[in-house]
Design brief:
The complex is a heterodimer of chains A (113) and B (247). Chain A has 113 residues and is α/β, with parallel strands linked by helices. Chain A has five helices and five strands. Classes of the chains: A alpha/beta (113), B alpha/beta (247).
């Protein structure tokens, strides 16, 4: 499943990194602690978080995440958007709560294993 | 004899990956003098290597340097940890060593981490990733710092990221905090109303400077003290011995 497909299926808003929408998603990860995501998430994952600051982008880029979904209408800092543009990190937002986003992703066949 | 001292207890040097390269200890002290700041704490993320140069650079400047650090706890909460001597700071640094993640910094993603001397000469580049969590919680870390005679202040509790209030939403009962800090985004006197979770802790403010411009703009806290020392600042925060502060 590509990033573009989850964007369409979940009605996500693309705030940065639209050039990376063709990437394939190989799994999912949910965490609000950056140190945890940095240590545990796998490359190619879609990361669901409520954090919207620029270090999220640094971690996503470091891990090689396919996309980051900032859920629950959490505010996204302008510096995060700017950094995501520079780094080519796909940054997506949604008013859906994190639990709902993860549940729907799982329903689409994206798992955490 | 009581005097007023203008203090900025939260300043990053160029050791912090997110700080500008202009934030050399020498340049910080030079601008502190220009701005009328008399007490300055150097508080880099999870590190204190540039405190030595800052103390040297401040010799005969009239500025008192307080050795410090901005710790990132396992909850990703930032707390300012201040000590009254380099020796205590080193004991603290040794204590937190086992709690480091062991990850290396990626300059392109997080920023560079420079250790310099008092003449702005590069001494070394710090390889460890500083912009990450330590594996020790805020309560245990603050208690240990206090046991070493340190003073802990919860950083920018008004901010939506990396703050005790954003991450936990409360002050842990077993934490040892002397005060909370608000950023330039909130007036200290409004904090108890807007952030009831801080309870009765004293509220200070500081620049959290990452650039010289931040340092010049402030905000700062004015302390009424006998001497420009951390012990006196602790007394002022606790409201003891007629010492006071005005944030």
């Amino acid at each position: 499943m590509t990033v573009q497909e989850i964007v369409s299926r979940l009605g996500l808003k693309i705030v940065a990194g639209s050039s990376g929408l063709e990437q394939n998603i190989t799994g999912g990860y949910g965490a609000d602690l950056l140190s945890n995501a940095m240590g545990q998430a796998k490359s190619g994952s879609v990361w669901v978080t409520m954090q919207g600051h620029q270090n999220v982008v640094a971690v996503a880029s470091l891990v090689g995440m396919a996309a980051v979904i900032i859920a629950g209408a959490a505010p996204v800092e302008p510096q995060a958007v700017e950094k995501a543009r520079q780094e080519g990190v796909v940054l997506l937002t949604t008013p859906l709560p994190a639990f709902e986003v993860i549940g729907r992703l799982y329903g689409l066949g994206i798992t955490g294993q | 004899m009581m005097q007023h001292y203008v203090a900025d207890l939260h300043v990053h040097s160029l050791l912090s990956p997110c700080a500008a390269v202009e934030m050399t200890p020498r340049n910080i002290i030079k601008h502190a003098v220009l701005a009328g700041i008399q007490i300055i704490a150097i508080t880099d993320h999870n590190a204190c290597d540039n405190v030595y140069a800052a103390v040297q650079a401040a010799a005969n400047s009239g500025v008192t340097v307080i050795p410090g650090m901005e710790l990132e706890t396992k909850e990703e909460v930032h707390i300012i940890v201040l000590f009254d001597s380099i020796k205590k700071m080193e004991q603290w640094n040794a204590f937190i060593q086992p709690f480091r993640s062991g990850q290396m910094n990626d300059e392109t993603r997080f920023g560079a981490q420079y250790v310099v001397d008092a003449d702005d000469e590069l001494v070394r580049v710090k390889p460890e990733l500083l912009l990450t969590a330590m594996s020790i919680g805020v309560a245990a870390a603050s208690r240990e710092a206090a046991a070493l005679g340190g003073v802990c202040i919860a950083s920018h509790v008004d901010r939506p990221v990396y703050s005790l209030i954003s991450q936990l939403g409360l002050i842990p009962a077993d934490a040892s905090l002397a005060a909370v800090e608000v950023s330039r985004r909130m007036k200290p006197e409004e904090a108890p109303v807007l952030l009831p979770a801080i309870g009765r802790l004293p509220v200070v403010t500081a620049s959290d400077a990452h650039t010289i411009r931040d340092l010049l703009i402030g905000p700062r806290t004015v302390f009424c003290l006998e001497q420009p020392t951390l012990a006196e600042i602790a007394m002022a925060l606790a409201g003891q011995g007629s010492r006071k502060f005005m944030a």
